[in-house]
Amino acid sequence: MEQINLTADLSGERIDRFLCGKLNDLSRSYIQKLLKNGSITVNDNPAKSNYKVSSGDRICVEIPDPEPLDIVPEDIPLDILYEDDEILVVNKPKGMVVHPSPGHYSHTLVNALLYHCRDRLSGINGVLRPGIVHRIDMDTTGSLLVCKTDHAHQILAEELKEHSITRRYHAVVCGNIKEDSGTVNAPIGRHPTDRKKMSTKAVNGRPAVTHYRVLERYGDYTYIECELETGRTHQIRVHMASIGHPLLGDAVYGPSRCPFKLQGQTLHAKILGIRHPVTGEYMEFDAPLPQYFTELLERLRKSRG
Questions:
Q1: What is the pTM of this model?
Q2: Can you tell me the distance from the alpha carbon of 91 to that of 270, in angstroms, rounded to the nearest whole number?
Q3: Catalytic residue among 16, 57, 137, 139
Q4: Could you tell me the fold of the domain covering 2-63?
């Protein structure tokens, strides 16, 4: 357990902002996590996240030791788009869960990463999600960012929070989208009656923005690209369904019956763009469309005539 002691030299600033400015190695999101866990005290009392510091406040920050990883490494092949000492970008296949969860404690991406990276994975997200900065659904394919060091994780998690990471997805939706491009700006939260689903009708929805543009039209279906400003759970699936164009194959938010043999939604995380956490260089990664997706597009093109 590492302990950091500070004395506030300003008044009126929120404690998370104050600490973020003083502790450059810790992201604001991580500081907020420490506040929630009671690991930050002011004048010997646990601090709340909205506390505003006063000059002379004695602030103590306790940073817990990383928890030992207890998920079993598995020799599962990875499609690696990029790798260095700080980060790793993988092209996740369909049907693979990103990290262990109830019912999925093996054969996940994390199991494969532990085998590939050994002990070189960020421990910020705990024993079940080492290195994982963001997630994509089990049946969504494509680019996924992984951090090997805590330093890289803190920087890129903050970039993700500030919406400065480029994320563009390709999808096939039901119906013919008439406009060439558009934006869905609708908060997303837990569905009011079905807790396994997300909804734009939630009472306490969080802001969510998806930009889309049409790539090709096939009459009853449309091939689109979506760019995320935010990263809410099931965001593209929920937003496109909310405007009457659910993703093809998505039995949760779309029709229960699909005329094609698909495993879940037709959604692929194609482009991922970040600033490298060490060099600051902008880097962009392009995950090729999976075979099922290209074969589906060819079939739709032929049916169009």
A1: 0.77
A2: 9
A3: 137
A4: 3.10.290
Q: Is 65 a catalytic residue?
A: no
Domain with CATH 3.30.2350.10 in the chain: 80-161, 166-270+291-304
In this prediction, residues 30-43 reach a mean pLDDT of 91
Confidence of residue 103 (pLDDT cuts 50, 70, 90): low
Fold observed for domain 166-270+291-304: Pseudouridine synthase (3.30.2350)
Beta bridge partners of 305: none
Query: Are the C-beta atoms of residues 92 and 132 closer than 8 Å to each other?
Result: no
Mapping DSSP onto H, E and C, the string for the chain reads CEEEEEECCCCCCEHHHHHHHHCCCCCHHHHHHHHHCCCEEECCEECCCCCECCCCCEEEEEECCCCCCCCCCCCCCCCEEEECCCEEEEEECCCCCCCCECCECCCCHHHHHHHHHCCCCCCCCCCCCCCECCCCCCCCEEEEEEECCHHHHHHHHHHHHCCCCEEEEEEEEECCCCCCEEEEECCEEECCCCCCCEECCCCCCECCEEEEEEEEECCCEEEEEEEECCCCCCHHHHHHHHCCCCECCCCCCCCCCCCCCCCCCCEEEEEEEEECCCCCCEEEEECCCCHHHHHHHHHHHHHHC
137-176 pLDDT per residue, tens: 999 999 999 999 999 999 999 998 888 999 999 999 999 9
Pick the CATH number of 80-161 from 3.30.420.40, 3.30.2350.10, 3.40.50.970, 3.60.21.10: 3.30.2350.10
